[in-house]
Write a structure and sequence with these properties.
Shape: flat
Strand order of the largest sheet: 1-5-2-3-4
Distance between the termini: 43 Å
Number of helices: 22
Oligomer: single chain
Order of helices and strands: EHEEEHHHHEHHEHHHEHHHHHHHHHHHH
Strand content: 5-15%
Radius of gyration: 26 Å
Structural class: alpha+beta
């Protein structure tokens, strides 16, 4: 599964990975309360959704000048009343033509995708799917063009330097295995920058010799590197790297036989301040942003694995209750592996309870994040998947339901707990809401097979049958 944090992997690099693997599915990216989803078909980004106010289609339509504020408000009211998309309502009202709506949706998709190039932090996860939702309008644009323009428009020179590591870096031209050069929207300056890359001059020299701004040169170089038209000149592995590799492997191996306190180099009675200081010290040693520029890839990977381990230890031990619980397990002689698993389960339960409280207070974005985190630490608990689904199915102002994720989560909950009727019931209710009465009947019937006295499932099944008759 492709997942991680934008602090470590840039959005254009994620797009390239998906394109290289020709994946079909959806990439979900979250930053705080904002969630954006990009849909892919064979590696090509084709559609996008967002819960950000500035990305809503209604706002885009209004800003286009094609609809008055009063007519838009009327359309929004009708869309909510009849559970229809506002764009389709405006077409029905003869305010927009189908062609105009199509162009506006494509504009919205481009805007959402382009905005993700601005994100420097946030979590992402890619989920493969055999097909895309039926209502998806396909964006037909070369991925190379999307990536190149996204970097040129949205990246600062400081951000590029952070990604490249050093202005002493030297690049050479290569034949991209994925794109042809004419597919790039290169300007005259871009062509000249590419031609100047010769495997000998470093970035400082290119900036000095070329008659273009630092930003234009650096963003162009970074875009060409991401798209694999150029690559860094390989640096010979040093004796220091060889020594560090051996030491790093030793450190990683020790994690298997030592406890979390030993991972951070503290004792079980260490204070919170001592734990924070230990983590800060180790972060400066192994954190990606503190590593020397252009160290060997193998050393960088080993450092990343160590950093993930110490971050995991810190996240548990900085919590006083979890620290006491874990220390008790270790003291009682529980193996380090079992103690860590028990700690993760306890932490997942804690996150789940926090999520339920947030959900009760209609703080759905925060609740969703807590439930997803609970799944990360304990993927064996069906209730956590159900909680995510219920959050996805909640329709209140400021929160957009996510039926696709709800479906996945409920089915995963059923895989873990087949004899829980409520998950069949929730699936049935969701399909009923979406107008898919065949699937609604299927899952409501299954709920009753598990629990014949499930009153809500009986009532819902009767309602579906009535709706089916009305449809004719």
């Amino acid at each position: 599964m492709l997942k991680g944090n934008l602090l470590k992997t840039d959005f254009p690099e994620i797009l390239m990975r998906i394109y290289e693997s020709k994946l079909t599915g959806e990439l979900q990216v979250e930053n705080g309360n904002i969630r954006k989803v990009v849909f892919f078909l064979g590696g090509h980004p084709v559609f996008a959704r967002s819960n950000a106010v500035e990305d809503r289609i209604g706002r885009l339509i209004y800003e286009s000048g094609k609809v008055s504020k009063e007519k838009l408000e009327e359309a929004l009211r009708l869309a909510k009343k009849y559970n229809k998309k506002v764009g389709l309502v405006l077409v029905k009202m003869n305010i927009l033509t189908a062609g105009e709506l199509y162009e506006l949706v494509i504009q919205q998709v481009r805007k959402i995708i382009d905005s993700l190039f601005q994100w420097e932090s946030g979590r992402y996860i890619f989920t493969e799917r055999s097909s895309l939702p039926q209502e998806v309008i396909t964006l037909e644009e070369n991925p190379a063009s999307i990536i190149f323009n996204g970097i040129i428009r949205n990246y600062t020179e400081e951000r590029v330097i952070k990604r490249l590591g050093t202005l002493n870096a030297v690049f050479k031209k290569i034949k991209s295995p994925f794109f042809k050069l004419p597919s790039l929207p290169l300007t005259e300056s871009g062509i000249e920058i590419l031609q100047a890359i010769d495997g000998k001059k470093n970035l400082k020299t290119l900036i000095k010799e070329l008659p273009y701004s630092r930003k234009e040169i650096l963003t162009t170089v970074y875009a060409l590197m991401v798209l694999k038209f150029i690559e860094p000149v390989e640096m010979l592995e040093t004796a220091e790297d060889l020594y560090r590799k051996e030491r790093l492997v030793e450190i990683l191996n020790k994690f298997e036989s030592t406890n979390l306190f030993q991972w951070l180099g503290v004792t079980p009675d260490a204070t919170r301040e001592e734990i924070i200081e230990a983590y800060s010290r180790l972060s400066r040693k192994f954190g990606k942003e503190f590593l020397p520029a252009f160290i060997s890839e193998e050393v960088a990977d080993l450092c990343e694995k160590i950093f993930e381990k110490i971050t995991e230890a810190y996240s548990f031990l900085v919590d006083e209750d979890l620290k006491k619980y874990y220390a008790g397990l270790i003291k009682s002689g529980v193996s380090t592996e079992k103690a860590l698993n028990l700690l993760k389960k306890k932490y997942a339960r804690q996150l789940f309870e926090e999520g339920k409280e947030l959900y009760r207070n209609n703080k759905l974005h925060e609740a969703h994040r807590k439930f997803m985190e609970a799944i990360k630490y304990d993927p064996t608990e069906a209730d956590y998947y159900t909680a995510v689904a219920l959050t996805d199915l909640t329709d209140i102002e400021g929160y957009e339901p996510d039926f696709d994720e709800a479906e996945r989560m409920l089915k995963e909950a059923l895989n873990l707990q087949m004899h829980q009727p409520r998950n069949y019931f929730y699936l049935g209710q969701m399909y009923k809401h979406l107008g898919n009465y065949i699937l609604a009947k299927k899952y409501l019937t299954q709920a009753l097979e598990v629990d014949p006295n499930y009153v809500y499932a009986k009532k819902a099944l009767e309602e579906v049958k009535k709706l089916e008759k009305m449809r004719g």
